[in-house]
Amino acid sequence: MVCCHHYQLLAGCDEAFRVDGQSLVFGPGCLSEAGAHAAGLGLKRIGLFTDKRLTASDHVGKVLKSLKEAGLDVAVYDDVAVEPTDESFQSAAAFAQESGADGFISVGGGSVIDTCKAANLYASYPAEFLTYVNAPVGGGVPVPGPLKPHIACPTTSGTGSEATGIAIFDLLSMKAKTGIASIHLKPTLGLVDPHVTHTLPKTVIAATAFDVLSHALEALTARPFTVREKPADPAARPYSQGGNPWSDVIAKEALRLVGEHMVAAVTDADNIEAREYLMWASSLAGVAFGQAGCHLPHGMSYAVSGLVKDFKPDGYPQDIPMVPHGMSVILNAPSVFRLTGPHAPERHLVAYACLGGTYEAGPSEAGEAVAEHLIGMMKATGIPNGLQGVGYDSADLDKLTDGAFPQKRLLNLAPCQVERDDLYKLFEGALNYW
Ligand SMILES: [Fe+2]
After folding, report:
1. Is the confidence at residue 10, as pLDDT, over 80?
2. What is the Cα–Cα distance from 267 to 35, expressed in whole angstroms?
3. How far is the CA of 3 from the centre of ligand 1 (A)?
4. Cα–ligand 1 centroid distance for 63 (angstroms)
5. Separation of CA 104 and ligand 1 centre (Å)
6. Within 10 A of 56 (CB to CB), how many other CB atoms are there?
7. Domains of the chain (ranges plus CATH)?
8. pTM exceeds 0.90
């Protein structure tokens, strides 16, 4: 299988890829099964993570009710930060340690699920905070072993965090977004209830669906694992191992689902079926990028969201300016795929076809075909017109470039080498699209 052209084995490079097991329960109403699953894992006392906006929600209510019905004790932690930091991770870890919980449930978006992963890690294997953080920012020390059971219940159809071993946060001392990545951080079970999508505002559906789309597209076009140096010890194989035949299968189906259902899910609030398909696509894309990794659109997104000026999108809390994660990702994407298309044209053509592209594009048009298709979807779903649409202009290009260039873990998974000048041009190309 790995002898096909894209995964040609090269001297000195890796020859094997990892396929992680995945435990998900997917279906309408399945949040009510949380208690049964927790009891099935042998848990007696649960540490439940959520955030203050969700504490009184139906989603948390359903989970708490099912835990009570299963006769389990619960301690609730709802101080999860909207944008988690090293400080908020450590506060959550202190709770996890002091709660006496023998397992955890997270109910929320990516911030909540990621915080629960980190809290579980530092409560299970206490260490100085930077120990497990990705190198070179942190020590990059491998997580020593399995953590306590964690059931992740996503309440948006975007992050796919229930299917990955990645926890992202802001390191305050460096004003940089980084993360911890390990197979041991992956939740024991993802409990994915598509009912949660029914009440999401359409701007949230659009932003989260573009996050899903980009997870899948970046996984499909990520640098192949066969061009990464072979690790001396298999245990040192990076969690984000690069594109591989398994992530390809999953990414293609996620792209097909988003291509088919996204515009309908955003523009027709009554189209419940389309929204529910996006929830399934979100978990699939999580599996794909958990196996392969993401690259440039995500690496650039952290600067776009971190340097926000006064943009306040409809459908989100209006107390602070923000560029929602999925929006900050997709605003870069057409510019990125115009650059990367010539470096892996067949991959881009496959992505274009999965998304529903209809015209006969040749290899030389592959990147442009993907870019134009994305721009069409952005227009159809009310996404702002490039970085200018969320308040940036050409005077910001250096700051955006400086903000994204340290994201080596992501930049190095792009299908081509990207230097600072290239990154500057990518941001410039993302200023506006129509
Ligand atoms: Fe993402």
Report:
1. yes
2. 35
3. 31
4. 25
5. 23
6. 10
7. 5-16+201-429 (1.20.1090.10), 29-192 (3.40.50.1970)
8. yes
